[in-house]
Amino acid sequence: SPGVKRLAQAAIVMIFLLCQSACDLLQTRDPEPPSQNTSTFIPPTSYDIVLRNLQFAFAEDNVDNYLRCFVDSTYRQYEFIPAPEARARFASIFSQWSLESERRYFQNLGGPSNGAPSLTFPAQSPIYTGTDSVIYNLNYTLFFPHRRDGIPQAVQGNMQLYLGVDTKKLWAIYRWQDSRTTTDSTWSYWKAVFSGS
User: Fold this and answer.
1) Closest CA to 68 of 96, 38, 103
2) Alpha helix (H) residue ranges in the chain
3) What is the C-alpha separation between 49 and 156, in angstroms, rounded?
């Protein structure tokens, strides 16, 4: 009968449409663009891992991982001691320096414009090792291709990093002393000039 024929045709059309949409599931799709928030952070169960995490944070332009390299302020107070010439020039900025200041300056660097940021220093042992703290004395070069005119894209100096272990047996930086090694700008200079909005 015509009704059954029409019903059969409608069923065939429905099956055809269902097959079409099911076949779309098997089609290859364009790959998603890579996430901008690359994150390499190794739980700092030993003090040397903190230095690697610091390098990864810059290479990946990841402010959250950068801040994870520092001591939890509920456990211990963080202290940054700028290079003397930077402290003299930017006294008001450094008198109030905090972990929030670290976040602000890192974010204000902006995304790298061209080239990959890098933090380099020699692989060396701490100059002091205790049961719950170590001190590193490292000459560094930090390259970050920011977009700010009139400010060098690389800084050099010496950082004395004091690392401690917390109640969870994880290591972090609790004191950082910066100093100049050459006539070039230091990390302190960058922290000051990028600390504003």
Assistant:
1) 103
2) 2-26, 47-59, 63-67, 84-89, 91-95, 99-108, 187-193
3) 22
189 vs 86: CA distance, rounded Å: 6
Can you tell me the distance from the alpha carbon of 108 to that of 74, in angstroms, rounded to the nearest whole number? 25
Q: Check if the beta carbon of residue 141 is closer than 8 Å to that of residue 121.
A: yes
Summarised one tens digit per residue, pLDDT across range 154-180 is: 999 999 999 999 989 999 999 999 999
CA terminus-to-terminus distance, the chain: 79
Q: State the pLDDT at residue 160.
A: 98
Nearest 5 degrees, angle CA 86-CA 115-CA 154?
20
Would you say the C-alpha torsion 67, 107, 90, 51 has a positive or negative sign? positive
